[in-house]
Design goal:
29% of the residues lie in helices and 23% in strands. The chain has one helix and four strands, in the order ββββα. It has one helix spanning 70-100, and strands spanning 29-30, 34-38, 42-50, 56-64. Strand 3 and strand 4 (56-64) form a beta hairpin.
């Protein structure tokens, strides 16, 4: 098996969901971006990532246009933070439940 020139370790194979292009580097694999775009008002970009360690995670970038009125903008930020916290908590709980179902040998 060929070895990576930079790490002297066998190269990781691309995953079925990997973008298989310049986004893969330093032992990391990144999926194509999933984009939600609300024209001119908001945009979210979700990317699935497998780190060199083998650990997988999701990266979420969010951009939301804020109101010009400071109090309204602060209200938007409070609401956004609450919604993001809820989504992250729900995703983390789902992963925890799924991992708890695994048998001690790591199989279902």
């Amino acid at each position: 098996m060929p070895f990576s020139r930079t790490t002297n370790t066998p190269p990781q194979r691309h995953t079925p969901w990997c973008g298989k292009d310049h986004r893969c580097g330093l032992g990391e694999h990144r999926s194509d971006e999933i984009v939600v775009d609300v024209s001119g008002r908001a945009r979210a970009v979700l990317t699935r990532i497998r780190a060199a360690s083998g650990r997988e995670h999701a990266e979420l970038r969010v951009r939301v246009a804020l109101a010009s009125d400071e109090l309204v903008a602060r209200g938007q930020l409070v609401g956004l933070l609450g919604d993001v916290r809820e989504a992250i908590t729900r995703a983390a709980a789902a992963a925890q439940i799924r991992n708890a179902r695994r048998a001690p040998n790591g199989r279902w």
